[in-house]
Amino acid sequence: MAVGQGGEPPPERPTLGPGPHPRYPAPMRLLLPSLLLACGGKSADTSSAEPPAEQPAWLDLGEEQACEAPTAAPTYIDVAQDWGLGGIHSEDSPHAVGAGAAVADLDGDQDLDVALAYVTGPAQVFWRDGDAYTPGPTLASGESGATGFGLADSDGDGDLDIGVTGSTTRVAWNENQGDGSFQDVTATTLGALNSSYGYTAPIAADWDRDGDVDLALPVRMPGGRSRGDRLYDNDGTGVFTDITLQALPETEGALTFQGLFFDANNDLYPELYAINDQGNVFGGNAFFLNEAGGRFTSGVDRCGCAPVVGGMSGTAGDVNRDGYLDLFLGNSDACNLMINDGAGRFYDSAAVAGVQEVVAEGDPDMVWGSMLFDHDNDGDLDILAVHGDLISEMEPREPLELADTLLSQQPDGTFTDVAPALGLDALDSGRSVVVDHWNDDGVLDILVTVINDWPHLYLSQSCTAGSWLDLRLQGPPGNPFGLGARVEVEAGGQTFIAEATHASGLAAARDSRVHLGLGEADTIEALRVSWPDGSVSETTFAFAARRSITVAWSP
User: Fold this and answer.
1) Which residues of 34-52 are buried (b: 16+ CB within 10 A; e: fewer)?
2) Could you tell me the pTM of the whole model?
3) Which residues 6+ apart lie within 8 Å of 367 measured at CB?
4) CB 461, CB 73: distance < 8 Å
């Protein structure tokens, strides 16, 4: 989407939620002392003004990347087959579950490796070397083949470990040995799991803010009609204890298809959201408020954020740029865009924003994976919705060939599908999605898996007129990837926020690198990283955008 022209203010957005939200939230208070000095009723004395801030030791700027031929939006080419990123090619492959993906640097060589999950066998790692992928080790997987992934540095050694779920029961935890191999440590890490549960992809967060990364295991097939999701606490060494009974309330509903940790109220204690399949049978989605790391309580009655839908996936991001994380929910029918008002309630703005009918009611097409990200770096989040069908023994038919949608946010806050124009409209039955930087050009690339065919790896082919900033976080001991850190950037008088997470929608996970599109802003004026342990790294040192920086936690 195009950024503003000629310095004119952008048009007003439609109202999202109970009242108008500001297009741009108030700048961070990092600059308050200098603003008071200039606006305190006296003539500004430039001779006594504070000198410019110096670059802090914890900030590594990297190199600025020039953009000689910018475009309003990138175009993409699919390089998956050319690069050897294999999947399966079988129209007879099971359609209900599977085709999960994990993307991260798993061997420490600064390249993005990929793991793929199909129910025809165990999960497979693919090592990247330049423009080629080669098969690596297979991973311990759930029973009846692999379906999805979770990522977490469970033992705090600086290597990402991988949780893999199966199509029926069991989850396997693969500890990264740091030498290109993985060890199945499920028995010692997670203990005895209930074999009657059907786990979906594990999710990670330091939900109690004790300095290590904890887990939640969403459950799709509990023994009864009560919700069976499990909550695990890390003891600091990578050994988890099931504390569900003490910390997670039992609620009606089951069949959790995806779980999501996100900080809904900016207190750095992440909430837990459960996306429920077949909501008309088992009840709506669930929202659990984090009570300062002690336990979770149900927030469904007052949040307005738990629709009764056929929920498939969810993704969090600051859609309306008011400083609070919102939710997009991909469903088997009409989708939801839940706008967070910052006071504990969400308002479904899908209809006014033009995203409700991504899937028509009663259509066998449905949204599986979904992701909020800024595809054109204009500063506003867009929505990628992966489409696919469901074939079962109860409904045998020919598979549908469906195109994904990339809903680009317009200056007025509505969304328009631009997938065909950008080359993102392949016809197949998609499942998971991961957005990340494969070519490090400042434009996010896209991996989409297909249930019965090769995946797509869409590589961006141009730089954008919109500026950007990437952040790699080096977190404290126990949480080396800074999971759960809140990033705030002030640029061009506007504030941009994001949360470091491994979440990537349905059955997928990614590295915790943060990407922010900045629109017309060329200079970072202030930077603040709030770490889960309560410490803050902040500076008003100004530097040029269009670069990948590293922020290191310091005691």
Assistant:
1) eeeeeeeeeeeeeeeeeee
2) 0.90
3) 312, 313, 330, 331, 332, 335, 358, 359, 385, 386, 387
4) no
Q: Which amino acid is at 528?
A: R
Q: What is the mean pLDDT of residues 401-428?
A: 93
Asked whether the beta carbons of 357 and 385 are under 8 A apart, the reply is no
User: pLDDT (tens digit, 9 = 90+) per residue, 393-411?
Assistant: 555 556 677 889 999 999 9
Given the structure tokens 């007879």, which residue do they identify?
92
Q: pLDDT digit string (tens) for 49-93?
A: 678 889 999 999 999 999 999 999 898 999 999 999 987 656 666
Q: Residue 380 corresponds to which tokens in the numbers above?
A: 């506003």
Asked whether the beta carbons of 283 and 250 are under 8 A apart, the reply is no
Q: Are 442 and 462 in contact (CB under 8 A)?
A: no
Residue 9 to residues 12, 23, 24, 28, 211, Cα–Cα distance (Å): 9, 10, 11, 20, 43
Give me Rg for the CA atoms of the chain. 22
Question: Which residue spans within 1-132 are E strands per DSSP?
Answer: 59-60, 76-78, 100-104, 113-117, 123-128
The whole-angstrom separation of Cα 95 and Cα 295 is 37
**Residue 434 bridge partners (DSSP):** 447
Going by their DSSP bridges, the two strands 494-499 and 486-491 should be labelled as: antiparallel
What percentage of the chain has pLDDT greater than the value 90? 66
Residue 110 φ/ψ region, left for φ over 0, alpha for ψ in the -120 to 50 degree band, beta for the rest? left
Maximum pairwise Cα distance, the chain: 79
* Amino acid at the residue 57: A
Q: What is the mean pLDDT of the chain?
A: 86
Backbone angles phi, psi at 324, to 5 degrees: -125, 145
Residues 255, 282: contact at Cβ < 8 Å?
A: yes
